[in-house]
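Annex B.
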Amino acid sequence: MVSWLPYTIDTLIDAFMGFITPAYVYEICCWGAYYNSAMNPLIYAFFYPWFRKAIKLILSGKILKGHSSTTSLFSE
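Trace amine-associated receptor 8c: predicted structure tokens.
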């Protein structure tokens, strides 16, 4: 939310003010949103074991096996 809030506020306000935001401010806001998108996989990998298991299945190629559709990602 911290990464997207400046971009969202700038975009909403700028549209009503006649697009007066300097280009460098807009670029900083865009890069903040890009940073959020880049950090999401790391956050998921750090906090969610099911995400780590899914990534391991994909990277190892086991996702292409016939029985992969019945694989449980959640511990019970």
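The mean pLDDT is 86. The helical segments are 5-16, 23-47, 49-60. Further annotation is deferred to the next reporting cycle.
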